[in-house]
Amino acid sequence: MWLAFYNKQAVGDVLMLTSGTISDDHVVTESKQNITLINDRTNDQTVAVNIFNISESFEISDNGPVLLTEEQVTKVNELIKAAGFNLAIEVDNTPKLVVGYVEECKAHEDSDHLSITQTRVSEDEVLQIVCGARNIAKGQHVLVAKPGAVMPSGAIIWPGELRGVESFGMICSTRELGLAHLEDLPGIWELRPQFSVGTALADVVAAY
C-alpha cells in the first residue's frame, strides 16, 4: 500500500509516495529522469518514490495527503516505467480512521501496562492492536487508526511491534485525533455503541 503527499509551497512540485519507514543509515537512492527511488539497502525494497515536476503530467489541488484517482495512479506507473524502473504502485483510498469493536483484550505478558486486542474494523477484517491505554476493555466501540492512516500530527500509522508482539494500527484518544473539544477524557475514546464497525471518523464527528 502506497500513500501520496504533495506540498508545492514547502517542497516544490514533487509528488511524494511512501510505503513504509526506513532508517537513515539504510537509505540508498536511485534517480532517473524526474524520478528518485528511496530503497532499503538491507532488503532491496523500495520504500519511497519522489516524482519531480508532477504538474507536467497532472494537476494536484490537495496540500498534504493526496488521494490519487485511478487515472492518476495509472499515469504515475507509466512515468515510473518510462524512467526505466520495474516498480508499480497501488493505493487504497478507503477510510483509515474508522470505528472498531474490541472483541478480545488481554494483558501483554511482557508489560505492566500494555494490552493485546483483537479489534474488528469491518465485517471481514480484525486487527491485532497493542494498546497502552489503561481504560481499554473488551466490548468497547473505539476509533481505530488503521495502517496507512495519517494523523493530525502528520505521523503515519504503519504495522509495528511492541514488546515482541505485532500490532496493526492504533486505538486512538480524542487528543491524538485533534478532537479533545468533543470529549477530553484520559485514555482511548470510547464511542457510543450507535456507531457501526467501519464507520469513518468524519461521520462520527458529524454525529457529535
UniProtKB/TrEMBL annotation:
<dbReference type="InterPro" id="IPR037154">
    <property type="entry name" value="YtpR-like_sf"/>
</dbReference>
<dbReference type="Pfam" id="PF14794">
    <property type="entry name" value="DUF4479"/>
</dbReference>
<feature type="domain" description="TRNA-binding">
    <location>
        <begin position="91"/>
        <end position="202"/>
    </location>
</feature>
<dbReference type="InterPro" id="IPR027855">
    <property type="entry name" value="DUF4479"/>
</dbReference>
<dbReference type="InterPro" id="IPR033714">
    <property type="entry name" value="tRNA_bind_bactPheRS"/>
</dbReference>
<dbReference type="InterPro" id="IPR002547">
    <property type="entry name" value="tRNA-bd_dom"/>
</dbReference>
<keyword id="KW-0694">RNA-binding</keyword>
<dbReference type="GO" id="GO:0000049">
    <property type="term" value="F:tRNA binding"/>
</dbReference>
<dbReference type="InterPro" id="IPR012340">
    <property type="entry name" value="NA-bd_OB-fold"/>
</dbReference>
<dbReference type="Pfam" id="PF01588">
    <property type="entry name" value="tRNA_bind"/>
</dbReference>
<keyword id="KW-0820">tRNA-binding</keyword>
<protein>
    <submittedName>
        <fullName>DUF4479 domain-containing protein</fullName>
    </submittedName>
</protein>
